[in-house]
Amino acid sequence: MSKLQERETAPDVYNLFLAAVLFISPWLFKLTNSQGKIDLWITSAIIVVLSLAAIIAYRDWEEWINVLMGVWLIASPWVIGFPHTRAMHLSIGFGIAILLLALLDLFLHYEKRHPDDDPAERAHR
Fold first, then answer.
1. What Rg value do the Cα atoms of the chain yield, rounded?
2. Contacts of 105 (CB under 8 A, 6+ apart)
3. What would the pLDDT profile of 17-56 be if each residue is shown by its tens digit?
4. What is the distance between the alpha carbons of residues 71 and 103, in angstroms, rounded to a whole number?
5. CB-based burial label for 78 (10 Å; 0-12, 13-18, 19+)
6. Which residues of 98-123 are buried (b: 16+ CB within 10 A; e: fewer)?
7. What distances in angstroms separate CA 79 from CA 20, 73, 75, one per listed residue?
8. pTM
9. SS3 state of residue 112
10. CB atoms near residue 5 (< 10 Å)
C-alpha cells in the first residue's frame, strides 16, 4: 500500500492544498496589506514544505510544526499588526483549518501506533 492510500496521509494532503490556496490568496482576494501578504506567503510556503515532507516520510515533529504554523496564523494579525483586514480573516480561517488537520493527523498516527489503548477498556480494569 502506498503512502497516499493510507487514511492517515489525507490530512497532510488537505494541509498541502490549503497551504497552496493560502499562498495564492493575496492575488485571489486582492489583499492590499503588505504585512499580511508577506506573512501568508512565508507561512504557507513553510506549511507546503512540511506537508510534502510528511507525505513522503512522516515524522511527528512535522505535524507539531504545522500545529505551530496554524497557531501562528491565528495570532499573527495581532502580533504583526494587520487586524481588521481581509488578510486577518484569511489568516484566522486557514489557521484554524490547518491546526485542526495537523492535530487530526497526530491523533490518527497515535491511534495507529497504539491500537490496544482503548479508553473504554481501561475503565473496566
1. 17
2. 8, 11, 12, 15, 54, 63, 66
3. 999 999 999 999 998 889 999 999 999 999 999 999 988 8
4. 11
5. exposed
6. bbebbbbbbebbeeeeeeeeeeeeee
7. 23, 10, 6
8. 0.83
9. helix
10. 8
Lookup: cell for 117: 489503548
* Helices vs. strands in the chain: H and E counts, helices first: 5, 0
Close Cβ partners of 44 (under 8 Å, ≥ 6 residues apart): 19, 20, 22, 23
Q: b/e for 19-40, b at 16 or more Cβ within 10 A? A: beebbebbeeeebebeebbebb
Q: Who's near 69: CB < 8 A, 6+ residues apart?
A: 43, 46, 47, 50, 95, 98, 102
CA distance 34 to 7: 38
C-alpha cell recorded at residue 22: 493560502
